[in-house]
Membrane protein (Brevundimonas intermedia), 226 residues
Amino acid sequence: MRFTDEDRTRVAAAIASAEAGTSGEIFCVVSRGVSSYMDVSLAWAAGAALLAPTVLIPLGFDLSWLVGDAWEAAHASAQSASVGQALAAYALIQAAIFVGVFLLTRLPPILRWVTPRGLRRARVRKAALQQFLAHGVHVTRERTGVLIFAALKEHQVELIADELIHQKVDEGVWAETVAVLTRELKAGRPVAGFQAAVERCGQILAAHFPPRATNPNELPDHLILL
């Protein structure tokens, strides 16, 4: 999903229009992905490799699976060598399973499927909060900043409102804003989604925080791409 200069201009115009009717500030950020989730792939790969015994041993794993039937010498040293070969073969199987599962879970659709929803939500929330603080959305004069954050790889939207807004606006009111952006992102219309979400934010803010006599623009009205 790409954003052209024209797309960013359209979102900026929507922000400026929404902020004209309120003393609140709206800030928009799009992230292509908040985490590589390398730890998730490693965990699945390690788990699959470690669980291999529960599959191979009950099936009667034998070295002949790999090297075929062979004559065995009834001698202690030969038996020791056979055990060593079996252990080496088993280690190779574990390594192959580890690499195979790791590479499989690096495919975006598979990675999204094997990553717990709660983990994705927590990391998106953390990334959104970092952007909220990094861009100073929390230091507007009246603490009336709102961040709209979309994580494309995670398919999740996060909205963070500042302190004074929390005191006056019920948190559930923002659900419609998040829903409309999520719906448009799913449909492949990100610009329309941000325009609608920004417009809805502006309406909510205007109802509680009308514009001041002097209404400076405290945050830039452009879409940040990460």
